[in-house]
């Protein structure tokens, strides 16, 4: 991998070949490789210190023992925390989280694809840029603030409810429900779906659609057989980018779902901060990680490399 | 056949086997906002004909082709394919297929899947499909490459896949949009003769768009020369080359010297230097014309060897370019420099820069074009 960084502007392969001598060439390649490593070193160090080591700590703690006073002790290694995952309470949290994350992903995809398609097919560069900025504007304000605003919007005294009452449809109160969490998740993660979809669709050569039409494909068939398969890397990337964070969502469900509808994320926080059962929290974290890892691996195996 | 039985008694129909019309354009105009891309083009292409639309980029030739394919619709005018009015019929419902400029092969499909696409869309049964795909791939000599993706093929091979993908559908008309433009010279020349042979073998109507005049001359049965949205001249290659009607056609097809002239009478035109040349123009006196003289139809000779039956202009050799099989002279004749190409045959006298010479030609070598 270091050779990727090894191409430095003052030493292109052509120039190396001109020098002719193989020994010199090998030496210069080694030097380029070393220089590449040095360039990447800060990022390496950052990733190791703040990602790799904490992950190992979480993994270790998931096998640790919790003593009667609630203190975690790094001895008597066991898999008790993992066994607890099979308990009905935790299982229902898992199912809820899974369903919500999947629904979020599907709804985001259904909403984003037509929009990304529209963006990608605009001829005017200005229009495309404006639409893209429109997608990103929400990122410029605080996520917590936006989530609280949704709570206000959905509460029984909110504008949605007022509008509903004024036309005689009665009070709407979906704050603190699964629906509210779903709305919040979709709202929060929509851009993560739109952007990779747009990137994939924008790269498609639209001559291919003309070629398909010329070869007797209807508009829909041309989409099914050409556009959709070619945009699939974007679809998969978007789905991963939405599914993974919704599966671990914490703030959204905390604010919009209330205490009675916990997700995996809330459960983990509870284990660490309230129940003081670190092994249990760590075990759930490890399981989530493993699921994500498997999903990502499957993605790369099934041709995700083209992304 | 139906048309012939309608008028059984007419002798002229029986004597001259009239070619069946394949594509007909009637005053077809295409406007994009304020730009007129194609301006009132009328055209009739016969069945089995190799017809080329030739012109510089932006002349409207590709737009014309796209309108036949149904990828664009005319602003005005009518397009008929085998007698049927196309109107706003979408491309998937027209009996034509296109070979696109950059092939537009589906990158996510193998060679066989690409070729099979059109048949699948038309719901051809699997057994027949497999057979026809194999045939088409064999026709373009790509047997063995069926499972490759387009990215793993060379430019020439991709070109062949594009051709097979279109031909497999047995369209009545094959439209080709600069199909050889992306290939290097040697491969392009090879593909030119292959394409021509293939066209004769399958007997299809080809509508071929190109900006390469040599390509159009060598391959076509007839050529339509376009410029700025206008169809300037339609005819067989020889006619286009030998009897260009306009200055643009004369200049665009091959190399030529264009000498400004004025019509003096029905038989005489007058050059800028006052020389009079015998040329029947059919234009009123005073009309501005150009005399087109192809470099290879001219000769450079010493002034004392000019015989009275030759047409001649006196000048001085300005440059000499040795090209191996020929020598090209630039002869300054006062108000302009005339290019003369002399084949490099044994015994030809070579002239030097500064030599006082005459440029001579026979009357038939000359053609008159309007400006």
State the end-to-end CA separation of chain B.
Answer: 44 Å
Query: What pattern of helices and strands is seen along the backbone of chain B?
Result: HHEEEHEEEHHHEHEHEEHHEEEEEEEEEE
Give the proportion of residues in helices of chain A.
Answer: over 70%
Instruction: Give the tally of structural domains of chain B.
Output: 2
Question: What features would you highlight for this structure?
Answer:
heterodimer, A: 307 residues, mainly alpha, MetI-like fold, two-stranded antiparallel sheet, 73% helix, flat, disordered N terminus, B: 371 residues, alpha+beta, Rossmann fold, OB fold (Dihydrolipoamide Acetyltransferase, E2P), 2 domains, 5-stranded antiparallel sheet
Structural notes for this entry:
The complex is a heterodimer of chains A (307) and B (371). Chain A has 307 residues and is an all-alpha fold. Chain A folds into 2 domains: 13-55; 87-304, Orthogonal Bundle (MetI-like fold), CATH 1.10.3720. Chain A has helices spanning 2-5, 13-19, 22-62, 80-83, 88-120, 125-136, 143-154, 159-166, 178-202, 207-214, 219-247, 251-256, 264-273, 278-301; strands spanning 65-66, 72-73. In chain A, strands 1-2 form a two-stranded antiparallel ribbon. In chain A, a hairpin with a 5-residue loop joins strand 1 and strand 2 (72-73). Chain A is flat. Chain B has 2 domains: 21-242, P-loop containing nucleotide triphosphate hydrolases (Rossmann fold, 3-Layer(aba) Sandwich); 255-370, Beta Barrel (OB fold (Dihydrolipoamide Acetyltransferase, E2P)). Chain B is 25% helix and 34% strand. Chain B is built from 10 helices and 20 strands. Chain B has helices at residues 2-6, 11-15, 61-69, 111-121, 126-139, 155-167, 185-202, 213-219, 237-242, 247-252; strands at 21-32, 35-46, 50-54, 76-81, 84-85, 96-99, 173-177, 205-210, 222-227, 230-235, 257-263, 268-271, 276-278, 288-293, 299-302, 311-322, 326-332, 337-343, 356-361, 366-370. In chain B, strands 6-7-8-3-9-10 form a 6-stranded mixed sheet, sandwiched between helices. Chain B has a 5-stranded antiparallel sheet with strand order 13-12-11-14-20. In chain B, helix 5 (126-139) crosses helix 6. Chain B starts with a helix and ends with a strand. Mean pLDDT of chain B is 89; it is low at 1-16. Classes of the chains: A mainly alpha (307), B alpha+beta (371).
């Amino acid at each position: 991998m270091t050779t990727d960084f090894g191409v430095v502007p003052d030493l292109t392969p052509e120039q190396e070949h001109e020098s002719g001598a193989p020994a010199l060439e090998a030496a210069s390649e080694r030097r380029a490789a070393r220089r590449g490593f040095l360039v990447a070193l800060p990022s390496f160090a950052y990733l190791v210190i703040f990602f790799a080591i904490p992950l190992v700590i979480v993994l270790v703690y998931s096998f640790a023992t919790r003593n009667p006073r609630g203190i975690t002790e790094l001895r008597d290694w066991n898999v008790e925390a993992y066994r607890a995952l099979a308990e009905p309470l935790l299982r229902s949290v898992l199912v809820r989280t899974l369903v919500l994350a999947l629904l979020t992903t599907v709804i985001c995809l259904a909403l984003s694809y037509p929009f990304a398609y529209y963006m990608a097919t605009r001829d005017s560069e200005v229009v495309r840029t404006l639409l893209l900025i429109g997608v990103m504007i929400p990122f410029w304000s605080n996520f917590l603030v936006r989530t609280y605003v949704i709570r206000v919007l959905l509460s029984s005294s909110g504008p949605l409810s007022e509008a509903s009452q004024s036309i005689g449809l009665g009070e709407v109160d979906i704050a603190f429900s699964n629906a509210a969490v779903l709305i919040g998740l979709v709202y929060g993660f929509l851009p993560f779906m739109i952007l990779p979809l747009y990137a994939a669709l924008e790269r498609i050569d639209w001559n291919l659609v003309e070629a398909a039409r010329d070869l007797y494909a209807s508009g829909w068939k041309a989409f099914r057989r050409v556009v959709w398969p070619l945009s699939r890397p974007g679809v998969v990337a978007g789905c991963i980018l939405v599914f993974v964070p919704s599966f671990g969502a914490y703030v959204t469900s905390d604010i919009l779902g209330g205490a009675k509808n916990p997700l995996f994320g809330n459960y983990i926080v509870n284990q660490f901060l309230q129940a003081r059962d670190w092994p249990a929290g760590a075990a759930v974290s490890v399981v989530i990680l493993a699921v994500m890892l498997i999903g990502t691996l499957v993605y790369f195996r099934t041709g995700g490399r083209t992304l | 056949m139906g048309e012939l039985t309608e008028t059984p008694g007419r002798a002229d129909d029986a004597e001259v086997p009239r070619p069946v019309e394949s594509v007909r354009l009637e005053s077809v105009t295409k406007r994009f906002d304020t730009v007129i891309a194609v301006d009132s083009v009328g055209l009739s292409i016969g069945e089995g004909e190799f017809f080329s639309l030739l012109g510089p980029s932006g002349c409207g030739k590709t737009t014309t082709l796209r309108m036949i394919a149904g990828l664009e619709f005319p602003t005005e005018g009518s397009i008929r394919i085998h007698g049927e009015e196309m109107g706003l019929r979408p491309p998937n419902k027209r009996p034509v297929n296109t070979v696109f400029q950059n092939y537009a092969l589906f990158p996510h499909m193998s060679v066989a899947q690409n070729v099979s696409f059109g048949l699948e869309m038309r719901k051809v049964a699997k057994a027949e499909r497999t057979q026809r795909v194999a045939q088409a791939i064999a026709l373009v000599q790509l047997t063995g490459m069926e499972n490759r993706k387009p990215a793993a093929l060379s430019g020439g091979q991709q070109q062949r896949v594009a051709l097979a993908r279109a031909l497999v559908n047995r369209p009545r008309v094959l439209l080709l949009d600069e199909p050889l433009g992306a290939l290097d010279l040697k491969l392009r020349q090879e593909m030119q003769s292959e394409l021509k042979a293939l066209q004769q073998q399958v007997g299809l109507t080809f509508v071929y768009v190109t900006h390469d005049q040599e390509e159009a001359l060598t391959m076509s049965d007839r050529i339509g020369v376009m410029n700025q949205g206008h169809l300037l001249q339609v005819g067989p290659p020889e006619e286009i080359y030998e009897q260009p009607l306009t200055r643009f056609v004369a200049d665009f097809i091959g190399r030529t010297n264009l000498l400004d002239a004025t019509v003096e009478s029905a038989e005489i035109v007058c050059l800028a230097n006052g020389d009079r040349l015998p040329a029947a123009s059919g234009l009123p006196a005073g009309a501005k014309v150009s005399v087109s003289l192809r470099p290879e139809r001219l000769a450079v000779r010493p002034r004392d060897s000019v015989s009275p039956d030759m047409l001649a202009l006196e000048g001085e050799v300005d440059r000499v370019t040795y090209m191996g099989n020929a020598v090209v002279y630039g002869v300054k004749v006062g108000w302009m420099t005339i290019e003369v190409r002399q084949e490099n045959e044994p015994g030809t006298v070579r002239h030097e820069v500064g030599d006082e010479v005459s440029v001579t030609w026979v009357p038939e070598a000359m053609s008159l074009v309007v400006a």
